[in-house]
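for the record, two folds in this file. i put them one after another cuz i was lazy. first one right below, seq on top, structure tokens after. the second one comes after a little note so u can tell where it starts
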Amino acid sequence: MNSGDLQFFLAVCEAGGIGKAAERLNTVQSNVTSRIQRLEAELGVQLFRRHTRGVELTAAGSRLVPVAGQIGSLLGSVRTVVHDDGTPQGRLAIGAMETTAAIHLPALLSDYAKAFPRVDLTLRTGTTMDLIRQVLDQKLDGAFVCGPLAHPCLRAEPVYEEDLVLLAAPEQADLSGILAGGEVSILVLHSGCSYRRKLEDVLTRRGVCIARTSEFGTFDAICSCVAAGLGVTVAPRSMLPQIAARWVLSAHDLPAAEASVQTVFIRRANAYVPNALSRFVEHVHAARHRLHMG
């Protein structure tokens, strides 16, 4: 089987059509069509249904997607392995929750970039569920997510311990007063955010109903709306200086059992670890040690 045909297959999946895939691959539509037809003939199944709006995967095509992605990643690993001479270099894609990126990563990423200038380092932010999915799909080499986490395909190492606080409008000076009405509106990131689940659990244990859930794309937008009195949210205590510098809010302590959260660094288990990633993990642990010593 030609691995190139699988790359054409994945390009059609991602683009949603033959024409768009051809543009992405810098080739003609007839070439894409013939490669897909050859793959279908070799496998003995139809991978796409053609219609006027483009193509859609058949059941067999859907089952092939993750395997084709793994094969593509393995071929990429072959290139990485043979060129990995001990000097960290090449692409390194790291993910992080937005709050982790704001609090812990600026100095760490700066130190790493200075130490290894031949590494093309990128950082993507997202929710815990989004980041886990991207690591499993091999779109990220590793990510900082909310733990604890047990997954057979992932290795998770604890790196940070955080305490969450509840944030509310400045005039709401007492936590019991905020919850006294029996219902509150919450301001959160979209589904998959681990801190969102923490906030929902805190309210549920107190018998407080959620009157409205408003979802936002960024934590900055959440803080602005909390300051305007539209609802409450939670954030790591270590973010309070940054928050106080931009918004006037009230911060409220939560019981230790509810406030404590763990941040872990995840990467794929049983996968080749290039020098760029192994050195990044070393930087993470060194930064954690300096934090504890401080």
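(here's the note) second protein begins now
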Amino acid sequence: MRIQRPVLFATLLSAVPVAMSAVPGCGDDEARAGSDFLSSYAKALCDRTFACCDAATRAAHDLDASSADACASELEAILVAVSDGGEVKGTFVPEKAEACLAEVDAAPCAEIQIVSVLLGVNAKFTPSCPDAWDGSVPEGGTCGNNWDCARDRCLHTVDASGQSTSACRAKAVAGEPCSSRFDCDDGLRCDQPSAPDAGTCAPRLAMGESCKGSLDCQDELRCGEDGTCQAREQAGGACASDDDCAAGAACDGATCTPLGAAGAPCSADSDCASFACADATGTCADVCKGG
């Protein structure tokens, strides 16, 4: 079985719903600063992508813009369109915004992520970007985007009737309650000694510690058959699922098999280490690795 490699678009996704205006009463200067930042952010992402990724690699990832400027124009239009005319409920933080742009400019080429004109950078390399606005909406309050929220996460849900709602809900930190691993902040697990909805977020487990599943263990580890965290299998090792295999490999049958390098045959993006299978050639595209 092949599993999709996680695509870390946290930096982009925190910006996608951002509107072009500030909270009412903050004044024209702040509104203009927020608008200028959105434009600069789109330009920074496109400039870095075009500097890092050659035309063949961009095409394999379905980015068809003819130039960095054309890319920036398209990306900015998307960011504005998906905001649906909403307003950021918070205070623009110029120093964080400037730091965010500098972090994008300096991001390693291999950390550029492309889905057509939607661009992003591994969030580990752009820590200032989520703080470009200081959100004012508390937990449970209605929000339009991540930057509205005091703890930086706006969850959008759609019920069975198609009605859409949103609310600020931060991931829990260590010691806070949880019902699953996905309620907890990065690097944490949901420790559930009794009822499934009565857990507490706790650090993920180290080598040799008792576990119930691989999500209990630190990233480079898996939960072995003996119920303890163990090293993941390298390419060629035995496996029952992708969780058994180290980064860069997936479980193919019962053996950990390397994901395809540039030029390897592929039928889906998930076959490739770059997570990009070029339709025209049926081969894996390269990762971005320019200057």
